Amino acid sequence: MIQAFIKFGDGRTSTDATQAGILAALRDPNATFWIDMEAPSDDELAILDDVFGFHPLAIEDTIQYNQRPKIESYNHIGDANQQGYFYMVIHGPDLQHFRENLRTKELDVFVSQRYLLTVHEENHRSITDVAARAKLDPRVVLDPGIDLLLYNILDHLVDNYNPILDFLQEEIDDLEEQAITDPKPDLLPRIAAKKRDLLNLRRIIGPQRDVLAILTRGEVPFIRETARTYLRDVQDHLIRAVELIELYRDLTVSARDIYLSSVSNNLNTVMKTLTIITVIALPLNVVTGFWGMNFELLPIGSQVAFWISIALMVGTVSVLLMIFRRLRWL
Question: Which of 12, 22, 59, 228 has most Cβ atoms within 10 angstroms of its Cβ?
Answer without folding.
Answer: 22
